[in-house]
Design goal:
globular; 0% strand; mainly alpha; single chain
């Protein structure tokens, strides 16, 4: 859905919808991180060590893509001889290198130099606050459901209070602390799942549950795209998206229904394993397409071309990483 939204939203309007996708992945991030049984050191040293290790898993590829966009922008400045852009561009570059672009309420910072990377900025924030948050929640594990509901209520209250505020879209879409509420929901959901993961429900029951949550997803998409039901309060539909996303993540995490068995085939699992890399590089692939083809192809060919460029970059990066790892392991 995110790929279609960024590359060619007209290809499938029913699926396109960034806010719901972001909610899903933010909740999923908190959910997955909370499943670990390791003990975390809630100290400055422990937090820095954990977050830096997590960030470095994606930072090399992010830096490569950033370098490509930087080279393109510098070339544009030189060709146009508009050297007055050097200082603001340098500031912008520093902000992106430090992964702070999601904290700046300006579209210039959020979308220039690999627009989708604002989510990596938010992800870095999630990694930094993860240990303090999960430590806090674990101490209140008896009130897990209450904490989860409280987070949803707080989310609703903030959305209502921010109605009509300048940069409303930034505060409720990009700003990492606000998205952090969904991240905390994911942590609560993960801890709740760990507690009840050994349920004795049969495959029939889980197939029914999976079918219901998918039906809810389709119904929600229908009301969002083809009715004005959610228009009374701006961004109110995101609350529905949070509930639907939480249900999908929780139910499918058991992987015991027929639908989840089908989705657990090797192809889908492999695509899932490279999905984060696809997200990081697809804006670069789109830029390559724009330079080479511009708008000379229809939406279907355009999507295929960008996807091919994306996969070439991802697999090329993986080959380089594997080569470096093999060189490190080989004896001198």
């Amino acid at each position: 859905m995110i790929f279609i939204l960024h590359v060619c939203p007209d290809l499938c309007p029913f699926l396109a919808g960034g806010n719901e996708c972001i909610s899903f992945f933010v909740i999923l991030s908190g959910f997955c991180l909370s499943l670990s049984d390791r003990d975390y050191s809630c100290s400055a040293k422990g937090i820095i060590k954990y977050s830096s290790k997590r960030i470095m898993k994606f930072y090399p590829l992010y830096a490569f893509v950033l370098f490509c966009f930087v080279a393109e922008n510098i070339l544009g400045i030189v060709i146009s001889k508009d050297y007055g852009k050097i200082i603001p561009f340098s500031i912008h570059l520093i902000v992106n290198l430090l992964l702070l672009q999601a904290f700046v309420p300006s579209q210039f910072f959020s979308f220039q130099l690999n627009g989708p990377s604002w989510y990596l900025s938010a992800t870095s924030f999630f990694y930094i606050v993860f240990i303090p948050v999960i430590t806090f929640i674990k101490k209140r594990i008896r009130y897990l459901v209450f904490v989860f509901i409280s987070l949803i209520i707080l989310h609703i209250c903030i959305v209502i209070l921010l109605q009509g505020v300048k940069n409303f879209y930034f505060w409720t879409y990009y700003f990492p602390p606000f998205r952090g509420l969904e991240f905390c929901m994911g942590i609560c959901l993960g801890l709740f799942f760990k507690k009840y993961r050994n349920t004795n429900k049969t495959i029939v029951w889980f197939t029914v549950f999976e079918s219901i949550v998918l039906l809810l997803f389709v119904v929600n998409r229908f009301f969002l795209k083809y009715t004005s039901l959610y228009s009374s309060i701006e961004r109110y539909y995101s609350i529905i998206a949070i509930v639907v996303a939480s249900l999908i993540i929780y139910v499918f995490a058991f992987s015991r229904g027929i639908i989840s068995k089908i989705l657990s085939n090797k192809l889908f699992v492999y695509i899932g394993n490279i999905s984060f890399e696809i997200y990081i590089v697809h804006a670069l692939a789109f830029e390559i397409y724009f330079v080479l083809f511009r708008d000379h192809t229809n939406i279907y060919v355009k999507t295929i071309i960008v996807l091919v460029f994306t996969l070439i970059i991802v697999f090329g990066y993986r080959l380089v990483v594997r080569f470096i790892q093999n060189r490190r392991r080989s004896p001198i």
